Amino acid sequence: MPAVTFRDETATGRPVAEFHLAGLPERMTVRELIRLRVREEVARHNARPSDRFHGLVRPDGAEAELNGYRLREARRIDWERQAGIAERAFQANGFFVLAGDRQVEDLDEEVDLTTDPDLVFVKLVPLAGG
Asked: What is the value of pTM for the model shown?
């Protein structure tokens, strides 16, 4: 069973964070991979809630920080709500996903994890004044 590496990078290609998950099916859609990633990062946060969240998308009521988000108080996060936010962000070009050496553009596109086990997430930052 394949393992996948989820890696966040800056637009210039600098790695920011990464984690691995094993025991996955050989093929998954981009939607399934995003939901899996969000569920995992929320589970890690909820195991030890704090006022900081390091994840793909900003939780409700949080402020963006350098490498994550600051919550007003330590609390648990709803992974399904976060997954919905992540899907909408993907569709609105808030971030893009690279599987191997290609950009995936559709949530329903399948990724072969036996040939593309590394997924790179690049968050796009809005320009000031634009």
From this structure: 0.91
* 108: DSSP letter: T
- Domains of the chain, by residue range, sit at 4-123
The CA–CA distances, whole Å, from 38 to 20, 86, 125 equal: 13, 8, 19
Quickly list DSSP for 70-93.
E-SS-----HHHHHHHHHHHHHTT
User: Rounded to the nearest 5°, which phi and psi values hold at 22?
Assistant: -110, 170
Contacts with 20 (C-beta within 8 Å, 6 or more apart), sequence order = 3, 4, 5, 6
pLDDT in tens, 57-106: 999 999 988 778 999 999 999 999 999 999 999 999 999 999 988 999 99
CB neighbour class for 86 (10 Å; exposed up to 12, middle 13-18, buried from 19): buried
